[in-house]
Amino acid sequence: MHPDDRARVRESVQQALATLSDYEAEYRCVWSNGSIHWILAFGRPTYNSDGALIGMDGITLDITSRKQAEQKILEQAALLDVATDAIFVRSLDHQILYWNKGAERLYGWQAAEALGKNAIELLHRDDLTQLNEALKIVVAQGDWQGELTQVSKTGQAITIASRWTLMLDETGVPKAILIVNTDITEKKQLEAQFLRVQRMESIGTLASGIAHDLNNILTPILSSAQLLLMQNTLTDDRKQHFMKTIELSAKRGASLVKQVLSFARGVEGKRAVLQVRHLISEIQHIAFETFPKSIDLSVDSANDLWLVSGDATHLHQVFMNLCVNARDAMPNGGTLNIAANNFMIDESFARMHIEAQVGAHILVTVSDTGTGIPADALGRIFEPFFTTKDLGKGTGLGLSTVLSIVKSHGGFIDVVSEMGRGTHFKVYLPAIPMHEAPPVQDNELPHGKGELILVVDDEAMIRQTTQASLEAYNYQVLTASDGIEAIALYAQHRDTIRLVLVDMMMPSMDGMTTIRTLLKMNPQVRTLALSGLLSSTQISELEGIHTSTVLSKPFTTKELLENIHQVLEAQADIA
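User: That's the sequence. What structure does it adopt?
Assistant: Structure tokens below.
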């Protein structure tokens, strides 16, 4: 017996003899060859016919293999606790079975608090769609990885990169899931900032074209307005022509400003089923208005183009970047072509393209007839800060951003380029093979039923034109020049005012403060927020108010009437 174990084993045997009970002990023995073995011993006192103690009977088992396995497990557990990642094991019915130190640091729950708890209830909130999908995949395929949003003990949202591995019992039956989670919250925030910086770079490259186009838009507006004021002999047809010119030019300018603001600000992280054809149409409009006229632009989108699940702002950024690069590659003019088609990837294609997955995709190809990319640079074009442009004409962020966004959507990119002949960028995105029903057009403008509407705006001309438009379509109107006046008017007419139109950027009391004050007076008050420059924070706050809707400036009479009609109809349905 190992010298260090003798005293402990002797004490166990003596206690068993003194209490006339069985004993059990684990101890080490040194074999003749010097090797150490673990022994498990069981003993019991034995007596003669007179009841006198004559000795002890017992058995011993060599448990060396078991002790070595236990030691290995302890060492592995110690290593897991050293890991910075959160590592835990959950049963198939979501019970937490193991919780390492990394999990304690990331989530704030100590192991004693987390063990035995339901993992979903502890770490997740709200939408569990992605979580349930991950569970299906790991059970079917044995592993899964992706990004999830979870919550800490304090309720703070955490973005994590998660890897799941299915654990099997000795018969091969699934018994639990090993999960390794890495906190990427800060990384995602930095990525969002990076994307915003890159978007602003793209806006900067278009700035001169935007300024030129806005001047072209303003010129016919000013000329037509002056002619209408100065010429008393104009026929009705000529007056209609000039008024139509003013209207179309104003719409053209509003559309350009709205698209640029939307692209620059971005509403990131929101995935939805969308039609890429519409994004390409917006890109076509911006390119047509801002690119040099020496560049011929052509667009060819399939009418039956499949839908994709994606972030519209980010995908817009992908195609905008590719088009800007194509423009820069054609300083002396050329042809820019954007094509979008359905593409089914089979196993043969997937074997030839390592990033491709079998299934339905859409293929968007951006082609130019420009200078081309040198062969020695082609393999580096997606590296951050790598650029073939002259100093001061590019940061090298554009294509690295494009690749990052496309990969985050489960897609990939192919590039073919030839010096002096041009470049083709092929963007493959996983598709939802379904047809989009064409929207039903209704040209009839909705009329009011005499409802009273309060219009709040610090711009007198906007108040006057809005009032005239509403009264022309059978609404009654009160107007206020700021939030303070609006609160006073609402207090006088709260029982009859059905809707409040609120400009979001006003002096003294801004729109958001006005809406909050109205809600305190009447939690059911209906508001329509009007603004051309809302921040993401304001948009999120307004979306959280179930009685408020947002209408972007500038808006047409048709857009105004349709939004008011929808709000009032919704109010009638609730009532």
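The chain is about 45% helix and 25% strand.
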